[in-house]
């Protein structure tokens, strides 16, 4: 009998434990945890309040259909919020959480990595001495199914969230609610997005401006996507040559005379050759004179580190996937897509493409443990939900994308709106020369050029992982914010 009661008691305790675990894995539609901290930025202590929590996405009837996780940092020794800039930060994917820029770029803490961005053990984090929190408050937002954000109404169609324009629409509503709740309508406001996040913020600034009457002072595009701006063949094929040259220079496989030059000397020369010779040659296709084809292939080989034979075999249009496999093939190494400074080892040296991206693989195992520790130990936000670095967001509707032109239209309508692009020379996923091409297409008549800015760095997709560029890129954001703040009582007019 005693054994029976002990068994019943044990089962009861197990059921309590199960209920407790289930409760901690439930999705909190609304929650918040506030902590106070301080960080040293540029040698000065900056006190701040951090709010980690969730806020709902509603349907048209006011029913919560999703819960978005966010982390909001406010400098706590500032009383005038009306003049205090607010930066709203998104990453990309499109199924990527905000962790990347949050814990490595603009936030008050950064993960432990070496000066070139390689992970270090034990995994963890430390103060970010270059955070922009000294000049702006920041909110990092995780879209649906990324981070701790989840759908809460299972009957809501996935198409409500997962598509270029659906994503922009519900996030604009969420941002509107956040800004209203935090009483930040008077503040100068900025959107920053990385990778697919640039597509997101380019569309968001237009949606917020035209549907919510919320106007912004700036948009920062970190490693931008095409944003719907056409670059079909031969433009898409020709535009990669400057990136190939930068990568070949980094790996020291260029001819000696070219290798002896600095990157700043080489790239303008390669860019000019791309526009003046390679692009017209590719446009001619099969009508290109065979002698001219050979001459172009020789010059492309000179700039890219690839053999003339390889370039001719690809009709001058060498795919990036082949480039990452081919450039260091004779050394038995591949190079990274998102950061071509990284090297990888494939199962076989043969083949047309690498087995994996050595850059992304390196980053993943540094970020995940660091954020899980940071959320619990610093932000004091506790949940048993998995923090999705990459969440399930498929199928993603990519139709009817026009975000680049939407951003350009928002600039034309809002004379206060400035745009800065930040790119890494060694980023092969969203290369720097195509980022320049974006700007040219957004401003075809040249009337926006005084409000368009471009910055490049000697690193990859996440340029801030390199210690030197973490400082420089954050300083560039500070300068951008400073220069895009109009003087008091300066009217918005062209």
UniProtKB/TrEMBL annotation:
Q: Name one GO biological process term.
A: proteolysis
The protein's matches in InterPro entries, at most eight in alphabetical order, are given as:
AB_hydrolase_fold (IPR029058), Peptidase_S10 (IPR001563)
- Provide the alphabetized UniProt keywords: Carboxypeptidase, Glycoprotein, Hydrolase, Protease, Signal
Asked if the record carries the keyword Repeat, the reply is no
The UniProt entry, under Pfam families, shows: Peptidase_S10
Q: Which superkingdom does the taxonomy of this entry point to? A: Bacteria
Q: Signal sequence span per UniProt? A: 1-21
Q: Does the keyword Magnesium apply?
A: no
Q: Which GO terms describe its molecular function?
A: serine-type carboxypeptidase activity
Q: What's the name of the protein?
A: Carboxypeptidase C (Cathepsin A)
The species this protein was found in: Belliella baltica (strain DSM 15883 / CIP 108006 / LMG 21964 / BA134)
């Amino acid at each position: 009998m005693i054994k029976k009661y002990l068994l019943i008691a044990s089962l009861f305790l197990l059921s309590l434990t199960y209920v407790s675990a289930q409760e901690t894995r439930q999705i909190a539609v609304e929650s918040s945890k506030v902590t106070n901290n301080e960080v040293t930025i540029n040698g000065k202590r900056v006190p701040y309040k951090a709010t980690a929590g969730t806020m709902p996405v509603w349907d048209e009837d006011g029913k919560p259909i999703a819960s978005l996780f966010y982390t909001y940092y406010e400098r706590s020794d500032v009383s005038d919020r009306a003049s205090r800039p607010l930066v709203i930060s998104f990453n990309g994917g499109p199924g990527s959480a905000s962790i990347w820029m949050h814990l490595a770029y603009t936030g008050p803490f950064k993960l432990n990595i070496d000066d070139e961005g390689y992970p270090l053990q034990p995994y963890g984090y430390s103060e970010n001495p270059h955070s922009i929190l000294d000049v702006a408050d920041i909110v990092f937002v995780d879209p649906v199914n990324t981070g701790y954000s989840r759908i809460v109404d299972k009957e809501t169609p996935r198409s409500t969230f997962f598509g270029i324009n659906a994503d922009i629409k519900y996030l604009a509503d969420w941002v509107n609610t956040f800004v209203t709740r935090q009483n930040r309508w008077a503040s100068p406001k900025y959107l920053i997005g990385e990778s697919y996040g640039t597509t997101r913020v380019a569309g968001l600034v237009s949606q917020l401006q035209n549907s919510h009457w919320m106007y912004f002072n700036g948009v920062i595009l970190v490693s931008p996507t095409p944003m719907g701006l056409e670059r079909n063949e031969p433009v898409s094929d020709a535009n990669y040559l400057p990136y190939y040259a930068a990568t070949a220079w980094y790996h020291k496989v260029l001819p000696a005379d070219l290798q002896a030059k600095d990157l700043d000397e080489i790239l303008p020369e390669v860019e000019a050759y791309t526009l003046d010779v390679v692009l017209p040659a590719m446009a001619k296709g099969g009508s290109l004179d065979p002698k001219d084809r050979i001459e172009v292939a020789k010059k492309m080989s000179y700039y890219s580190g690839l053999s003339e034979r390889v370039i001719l075999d690809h009709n001058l249009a060498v795919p990036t996937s082949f480039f990452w496999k081919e450039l260091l093939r004779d050394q038995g190494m591949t190079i990274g897509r998102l950061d071509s400074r990284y090297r990888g080892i494939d199962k076989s040296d043969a083949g047309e493409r690498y087995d994996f991206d050595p850059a992304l693989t390196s980053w993943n195992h540094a970020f995940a443990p660091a954020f899980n520790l940071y959320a619990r130990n610093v932000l004091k936000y506790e949940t048993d939900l998995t923090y999705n670095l990459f969440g399930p967001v498929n199928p993603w509707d990519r139709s009817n994308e026009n975000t680049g032109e939407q951003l350009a239209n928002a600039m034309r309508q809002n004379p206060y709106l400035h745009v800065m692009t930040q790119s890494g020379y060694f980023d092969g996923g969203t290369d720097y020369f195509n980022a320049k091409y974006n700007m040219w297409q957004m401003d075809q008549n040249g009337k926006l050029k005084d409000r368009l800015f471009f910055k490049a760095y000697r690193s990859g997709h996440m340029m801030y992982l390199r210690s030197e560029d973490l400082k420089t890129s954050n300083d560039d954001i500070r300068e951008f914010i400073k220069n895009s703040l109009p003087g008091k009582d300066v009217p918005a007019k062209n």
